[in-house]
Specification:
With 177 residues, the protein is mainly β. It has a single domain, classed as Jelly Rolls (Sandwich). Helix content is 2%, strand content 41%. Strand 1 and strand 2 form a beta hairpin.
Amino acid sequence: MIVTRTKLNGVLVIEPHVFGDARGWFMETYSIKKTPQIDCVFVQDNHSYSAQKGTLRGIHFQHPPMEQAKLVRCTGGAIMDYAVDLRPGSETFKQWVAVELSAENKKQLFIPRGFGHAFLTLTDNAEVLYKADNYYSPEHDGAIIWSDPDIMIDWGFDNPILSGKDNTAPLLKELKL
């Protein structure tokens, strides 16, 4: 696996080695031996499907003590995946990175605890799978409005398709992190 660091400390792009022949291909999507930079134990896998291009999910996170690290991949279609630094003492607080993940490029994004996560579908029929190192907890669920001016993410879409929760999420400055 090829592991590439991003400008945000701990956020990594993972590129699995793909072995192909006339039958198709094979790859390891995760190996604790081959990615020692990912220092967590995953306890839950999640799978989402978005029917329409332009669907935005996020910016989501979990409040302490239920924060989650995630290893995200796209198995159908393509997404732009975003990690937002929500660690108040970090020198990159409020900064973000975006990586295109697709069924074709097979890249993955590792997002450590303390970060918000969002993705925007670039195609219809996008499927996203991700591993989490902590269980989802509804009472610790958090979200930030997608258009927060303190974060200033360039989504590339003026009117993404949003859930009610994402459309009415609070601003970052209204939250206690």
